[in-house]
Amino acid sequence: MEDLDTRVLRTTLGWQAAGLPVVLVTVARTWGSSPRPPGSLMAINGRGETVGSVSGGCIEDDLIARIREGGVQAACASDKPAVLRYGISADQAHRFGLPCGGTVELVLEPVSAHSRVQALFDACQQRRSTERVLDLRTGQVELREGRRDGVPELTDTHLITHLGPQARIIVIGAGDLSRFLCQIALGLGFEVIVCDPREEQRASWRLDGVVVSHEMPDDLIVRLKPDARTAVVALTHDPKLDDLALIDALQSDAFYVGAIGSRRNTAQRRARLHEHFDLPEAALQKLHGPAGLHIGSKTPAEIALSIMAQVVAVKNGVRTDAQPR
């Protein structure tokens, strides 16, 4: 399953190819409470069809009405990008469903060849983080190497946004727990890869949207080179498989590396990786084990939920410690 940014870009390209006018809408700044964070994307075509979102729905309805009534040029007031603000007054906040009198500032951009949507989409597919610089005076776009999670910057002349690769999770082991984990990860917009060299485990393991690999886990990790948008979770309980994956994952840029097991097994694993594989303490500190937040989980589905909750927390910069379930 694609994440929302990728879906917006792919759909925009499809509308362009079909000859439809398209407006790309970006949340540039917010004040107070707001339904969607800065950097959120949506696109609206000339028929009023949308993909993505910038609020809970009321702002989208207003933008759709503008386009249906006057077309793309009317929504932007010209063929150039426009800045639009919602929620300045209490009445507007109430009308547009903004909580607590929040204010959101949007940039509306008529999509053209200058928008470089295809190049941006290609960069995301190639897992390259990109800084996109939109000239508000001309509609020209410059793409350059950047970081994925930068905060948008809006000036009188430019909008600078940051886009990058879809969040990805590599799961070691094909079993009931990994099936539940993958289902949750897909719903959260992660790219999901399951690795298990054991044919008897893989034979009946299928889930739409998940890539299943029969490689040895360490070979897969070396090949994929986990980046800062990748999580790795080892679920086999087999040191020959889990440890091999963890050795390389802990020395990669992966934002999360976790493994299931009791606290005792986790302590033994840490000692084993340090004593037999010379893994430095700094690398071992990255290991989340036992993987998952403490939610009293007992079943495979609940354990999967606890692990994905921790993965998302770490991805979003929330500090959390693994605790026994």
From TrEMBL:
Domain XdhC Rossmann: residue ranges: 169-311
Domain XdhC- CoxI intervals: 15-87
InterPro entries registered for this protein in UniProt: MoCofactor_Util/Proc, NAD(P)-bd_dom_sf, XdhC_CoxI, XdhC_Rossmann_dom
Source superkingdom: Bacteria
Pfam family, one: XdhC_CoxI
UniProt protein name: Xanthine dehydrogenase accessory factor
Organism: Leptothrix cholodnii (strain ATCC 51168 / LMG 8142 / SP-6) (Leptothrix discophora (strain SP-6))
